[in-house]
Amino acid sequence: MSWFSPTPLLLPQMISNNGRYLADKPALIVGDQTFTWREFDDATARVANGLLASGIEPGQRVAILMTNGQAMTEALFGVVRAGCVAVPLNTSITDEAVATMVSDSEAAAVIVTADHRPRIDKSRDSLPTVRCFLCSGESPEGWEHFESWRDQASAEAPTIDIDAESACNIIYSSGTTGLPKGIVHSHRCRAAWAYDMAVGLRYHSGARTLMSLGLYSNISWVAMLSTILAGGTLIVMPAFDAGVYLRLVGEQQITHSTVVPVQLQRMLDHPEFDEARLSTLQSLMCCGSPLPEASKNRIIAGFGKAFMELYGLTEGLVTILSPEDMSRKTRSVGLPCPGQQLIILDDNNERCPVGESGEIVGRGPLQMAGYHNRPEANAEATFVDETGGRWLRTGDIGKLDEDGYLYLVDRKKDMILSGGQNIYPADIEAVLAEHPDITEAAVIGVPSDTWGETPLALVVAPEPIDNAAIREWVNQRVGKQQRVAGVTQIDELPRNPNGKVLKRELRKAYAQWQKK
Q1: Same domain, yes or no, for 421 and 454?
Q2: Which of 25, 174, 148, 15 is nearest to 94 (CA)?
């Protein structure tokens, strides 16, 4: 029998190995507190053992609604080490959306920080599958104090045999109404994200990675997984602040970080911005929204050779534009990351020649296991080639040049990318439909200097309406990231013969819209 095993080193093993071989090396820094890999190994083992002792079984889901910090980092990876499925929730979504996602995932446990506890309390009676409620910080009756609960558990490595094909996490698309899509990654898939992204983004054992986005975001997972694999150090910010970020780069000798365009813009505009203070940066990955060429050139000038652009989907497709290619391939979003294959399909599912636009389709080890309990969405997102190979449909339109570099052209789907967050117009449109004065509504993305894109609501009503009042009304009912920049009343929505709203025409008509 060969000694070689086809099963990669999985995330729980990576953490355990770091605890053993990098015991005294810093693993996590939050504020003025530093935790070694031995301490992080012990803490995540305690969380895992605590869950198992509480009757939460491997394979069951654990929803995590937490503000960035020590507790959230330990909770995320403690859940994974228990063989349970981590379900990190975007803290900017509405309370109703939180309840929907907890319910859809059939979570057996919920872990929160005290600032988010009231959000779960509001819907507690409608969450019958949850039997374990843990709160970091002040914990009233009905909640178990996370830190005390953790510290009572064993720090021994959990004796759980985790199958590489079992689910590691579910990351939900944001939503206000209806059923959001939970993106499932297996342990094998997450190991591949660690290996492939660490290579593509140039992580190493000396990496000191600054985390400024919510740890629920897949952008953050890219950085965390790469750093854990390499045995580096995570420096976690509770929330992003441009001045604090710039100071931390120098004070903590930051080498790696992941950001979205709006963060880069705020740093470039900040009075404390000084390129010399950023000299330790080796890899600054930006993704989440398309970067116009002018913006990209400004970022290149400000952040130098550390800047890397990434185009990707949480579902499992990634391209990277490296620093060496920035000047000659500025308009592209780079090459497929290691292990990825990329093709462009026309409307007949035929492969497009070089330079011709079509749907971006890819496959590789980063590909999700599927959407949680959404067979129809899985079918829609899958292309099966002539050999039976399964590819991921992105819904985005792009083209490849003669060197294989990808260029984004448009989005086949109507999703809006704003500040690194996915916004689905249907969610906002469903809220607008509840307003008694509105008969029809369509939401599109319009250019924004701050966010890349921002939602604009176009509404049809039988009588003149107060646009500002409608905007205030809808923004009180959607998540923070989903708030519309404006409301404009129009006579009718353009439609095709089958009655479908032609959003491409709306985007063209309002491409120059500016908030008054």
Answers
A1: yes
A2: 174
Indicate whether 231 belongs to any domain.
Answer: no
pTM as predicted: 0.85
* 386-417 tens-digit pLDDT: 999 999 999 888 999 999 999 998 666 777 88
Torsion-angle region of 32 (φ positive above 0: left; ψ -120 to 50: alpha; else: beta)? alpha
CATH number of the domain where residue 56 is located:
3.40.50.12780
From first CA to last CA, the distance across the chain in angstroms is: 71
Instruction: Assess whether pLDDT exceeds 60 at residue 443.
Output: yes
Q: Tell me how far apart the alpha carbons of residues 231 and 204 are, in angstroms, rounded to a whole number.
A: 8
How would residue 1 be classed by pLDDT, with cut points 50, 70 and 90?
Answer: very low
pLDDT at 5 over 70: no
Q: 459 and 365 in one domain?
A: no
Listing DSSP states for 297-360 in one string gives: HHHHHHHGGGEEEEEEETTTEEEEE-GGGTTTSTTS--EEPTT-EEEEE-TTSPBPPTT--EEE
CB-side neighbour CA atoms (13 Å) of 152: 11
Residue 176 has pLDDT above 50, yes or no: no
From 161, 186, 211, the end of a domain falls on 186
Final residue before a domain boundary, out of 138, 169, 186: 186
* Number of domains comprising the chain: 3
